[in-house]
Batch of 3 targets.
Target 1
Amino acid sequence: DAGITQSPRYKITETGRQVTLMCHQTWSHSYMFWYRQDLGHGLRLIYYSAAADITDKGEVPDGYVVSRSKTENFPLTLESATRSQTSVYFCASSESSAIVGEQYFGPGTRLTVT
Amino acid sequence: DQQVKQNSPSLSVQEGRISILNCDYTNSMFDYFLWYKKYPAEGPTFLISISSIKDKNEDGRFTVFLNKSAKHLSLHIVPSQPGDSAVYFCAASGDTGNQFYFGTGTSLTVIP
């Protein structure tokens, strides 16, 4: 299907485990983003990527790792999950930079760290 | 520190009336602003945007107003419809070029 997809949609993991959230887009957009949504904070940028093999930190990158070997995929890895990383994670893509381009969001992944 | 603030967590409006959602920002370098709408269990979807060279942008029932001197923007929805019930996020960009800063969201309920 065309668009932007995230998997899994729901995930429960234990503290200290590594978990990877997947994001895939079919538009060949250059830019991809990872956000987390928490009560009282809205959406906060974790990492973004301007192109394959180019990534940069956002507001809250600590505890997360990203990679982008292919334009269409942008996985987010929690190397050692903590309870504070319980959140809803959204992936987004855009064809241009944030200044002039709207972002298209995936449906989100609800992650619970126990 | 939150650079984009939406001070009203929720808003209820009668169907057919105007909905006004407000957003304040602190960074004077922001020069591009967007509104997103979010339904439960879905990702946000783009609604309308405005650049700092304008003070108003309209798209059908949706109008965004920007007051740069007050660092304030608002979204007007006229007339409001029950399908407009959702969480609305404002977002701002401009100082670093590739990052949007989002507000905390306002939950709008349009009562039939």
Target 2
Amino acid sequence: GENVEQHPSTLSVQEGDSAVIKCTYSDSASNYFPWYKQELGKRPQLIIDIRSNVGEKKDQRIAVTLNKTAKHFSLHITETQPEDSAVYFCAASAGGGADGLTFGKGTHLIIQP
Amino acid sequence: DAGITQSPRHKVTETGTPVTLRCHQTENHRYMYWYRQDPGHGLRLIHYSYGVKDTDKGEVSDGYSVSRSKTEDFLLTLESATSSQTSVYFCAISEDDIGQGEQFFGPGTRLTVL
């Protein structure tokens, strides 16, 4: 089955700086890659996703890049703000998400004032 | 948030007792999922459903069963709860029309098995 590795497990950045979280996946058939943000005690919330026919996608301060050849994808957050502090999860699916997602173990992003 | 509710939100039970968690949606989405979340493991898929009475196993299905008799409800049953099933359980839904696939999560159920 699919295996998703996520790094780093903890990332501390100064407010205003950029943050990058990286994930690799094992199943070359995977075609859907969402990113979720989870605040303490809350549900995971989708922040951005990308499909295998696209190399990059942006939404204001966040962007995701996908390298299918290397089987890795990354989340980029620019101009970080205190409200960006949370745990971020990457995920992958070979069925466009229909047959469930395989998640990475998460990255705790800490924004230092 | 999408119209997803989970019940109960918190439950404490004893080893060996049966437990049923309920997920209810008002979005009329076709796909429903059960995940568990444990420290150091992220979220792991237990079972999912792609329609009424249509279900399939996920990565960590041992010790769990599911049922979906109506579009809006997806039940997760622990036949005989064990301490290793102490976790936070999230339900998710997806419309999964062609080109879609986004999953939206419910508020979660915190289950403690003593």
Target 3
Amino acid sequence: DAKTTQPNSMESNEEEPVHLPCNHSTISGTDYIHWYRQLPSQGPEYVIHGLTSNVNNRMASLAIAEDRKSSTLILHRATLRDAAVYYCILRVNYGGSQGNLIFGKGTKLSVKP
Amino acid sequence: EPEVTQTPSHQVTQMGQEVILRCVPISNHLYFYWYRQILGQKVEFLVSFYNNEISEKSEIFDDQFSVERPDGSNFTLKIRSTKLEDSAMYFCASSDLMKTGMKQETQYFGPGTRLLVL
């Protein structure tokens, strides 16, 4: 799986939008972009994933650059519960066995009241 | 909402002892995983399991480790002779069949077992 680069930490105020960037300049045409997060003392949790088009779900939005070399996870209104480490993970799209997730260090998001 | 459960939540053991960590994956899932996270470090993949056999394993998953699905609901990780460096949080995860042959399934993680080897 290709490498991703994320800032070590970010801060946000409660109820404000948060944009978490991820660079993946070596992404291949078949790599999907996945985001997971890990709340304190919990297991990782799926957030969202996409290939080329922007994606929205109940948790977040994913904005993917036209050249796919970067993406941004958007939390529209941060809450205290969103304080977590956010991981951007690339996953190769090919058939065959299910694959493991390769976690980097992620971005530690702090949310201030 | 269905969830992955793990027992025990905490385990303390002496170096050289065997430990078994237990997981109950989501009931209709067929792919199972173990990951670990040493305190302050990244989440690391250990092993994946499908159709009663290991499908992938990392370099960490050496002969001291084994996995088993002893019945229709449990998935276990056994460490035969624990070492100090095995102290970590161990996470079990499960996922559904691949959809349309693409490796983009969501993995659902349990809350983890914190293992401390003294």
